[in-house]
Design brief:
This protein has 197 residues and is an alpha/beta fold. The chain contains 4 helices and 9 strands; from the N terminus they run H-E-H-E-H-E-E-E-E-H-E-E-E. The protein has one domain (6-187): Rossmann fold (3-Layer(aba) Sandwich). Keywords: Transferase.
Length: 197
């Protein structure tokens, strides 16, 4: 009988879910995911935990294997229409990308963007976060995240309470930036770390 990796089993998914709850409760706080994930990436752990048959998904940069796509069980959608969209963070947002923002009566229908980058604990792309869940300010240092994502985010959240939520991941850690969080750039790396074909 085939045994599924822990990432697809409820005990580990429950622990990842608790990590996600903590990340959203304390924006910008970096949360280590369980070591039992092994070499499975944090992005996949997040998706395996949050997606099901009722949540649409777009793997915009083809980062998930076909086998894992099937295990996620989430219906496919375009990047502009999906509930959750996965991106390679060192590439700038695609030209013309317009994520779902919800509306004033249904702000919860805005998309969640999952960005996978090199590091969410160190780097020359530096931000200071403030807002609900942040006591005073919270520093956030990144490597492998094109700064165009955060410039675009300012536009996407400009009509409160609509907008998008971000989940930033490196290999084994996550942090969340809800739409209610303010980000102030301290030192920005150039927005040219990678280009899309």
């Amino acid at each position: 009988m085939m045994t599924l990796d822990p990432i697809w089993q409820p005990p580990l998914q429950q622990r990842v879910y608790r990590a996600l709850l903590e990340a959203h409760s304390f924006p910008g706080r970096v949360i280590d995911l369980p070591v039992e994930l092994g070499d499975q990436p944090a992005t996949l752990a997040v998706l395996a935990t949050l997606l099901d048959t009722s949540t649409s998904f777009c793997d915009a940069d083809g980062l998930i294997s076909p086998e894992d796509q099937l295990r996620l069980e989430a219906p496919s959608a375009t990047a502009d229409d999906a509930d959750f969209v996965l991106f390679q963070a060192d590439l700038a947002p695609p030209d013309g990308f317009k994520p779902r923002l919800g509306d004033v009566y249904h702000p919860h229908e805005g998309a969640t963007l999952v960005l996978g980058g090199r590091s969410i604990v160190e780097g020359h792309t530096r931000f200071e976060l403030s807002g609900p869940g942040v006591e005073s300010t919270q520093p956030l240092n990144l490597t492998g995240f094109d700064t165009a994502w955060f410039a675009q985010r300012e536009q996407w959240i400009s009509a409160y309470p609509t907008g998008v939520d971000l989940i930033l991941c490196d290999a084994s850690r996550i942090t969340a930036i809800p739409r209610t969080t303010m980000m102030r750039s301290l030192i920005e790396a150039p927005s040219t770390e990678g280009g899309r074909a």
